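User: Hi! I'm working on a homework problem where we have to compare a predicted structure to a textbook description. Could you give me the structure for the chain below?
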Amino acid sequence: VHVVMRSPTFWLARHAPFFPPDYLEMRLLFMLPRLVRLVVFALPLTTTWLLGYLTGIDPPGADTFSLKFLELHLKSLFFHPLVRSPLAALSMGKRIQVTKAASHAACDNCRVWPQDLRGFMENGVRIGQHEVPCDSVVVATGFEPCYNFLPDAFKTHAVHERYLFTFHPELENVAFVGSVRGGIGSIPAGAEMQARWAALVFTGERRLPSKSAMEAWIRSHHERGLAKFPTEVTMVFANYLARHHVGCEPDLRAVFLRSPRRWLRVVASTMAPAQFRFRGPGASPVVASDEFDRHGEVDASP
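Assistant: Happy to help. Predicted structure tokens:
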């Protein structure tokens, strides 16, 4: 089995005995150096695998560690031609979530190639400068989105063909909301910020850059080789839109002066959309304050 990694990939086991990185995203974490993110996000997972391998214990709900995962990490994060630095790859790289069944299947007879497929031969494929004989090729490119309500030329366009994943330069008065969370999937905080930005654009309160400027951003985005938003996480994407396009990034100094305890919960608790309601369009500071003041409490009222 040959696995071809077209772009830098951070292999992440799906089942692990700790919270996924999403739950660890907090404003305080992104106020600190990127190395801290590396320690918080990457090392616990690697440590779990290593301990499981050395002790022979398979932790409940965790993937069994294999040396193949170590090879995947090393080849992708240190030797992939598109990687600028191992630290950047660990905190910015594309994440592929690997299930327990997949980890066992890929352990033994598998070779990982940190390169792209160059072409096909009569009896195999070209990977980089190598000719690799093979019987069949599985092209794991994912699914193709289809927007039947759009003109034919745009029915199957990708999210990365849009300015900040939201506005397509060729499609006027159309916004795509909820199709990205910065780098992967869709999550309410990112989708909500996209929706607020789109509403401001459609009501004339915000203006989009020129078509050429949006196309330039998209080209730059693809040239990075990752086709992802910087640092690949929900918090950065949502906060970027809040700061530069919606105007609702929380004023942490003002929050602190009103309530140090509330400030601590804003910066040091899991990211919540309520933090973007303290000020700006659609602000509701009373409701936002109440959300953080009762942090950890359950509203049991009917």
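For your comparison, note the following. The CA atoms of residues 22 and 109 lie 33 Å apart. Confidence is low (pLDDT under 50) at residues 58-65, 91-106, 226-232, 298-302. Good luck with the assignment!
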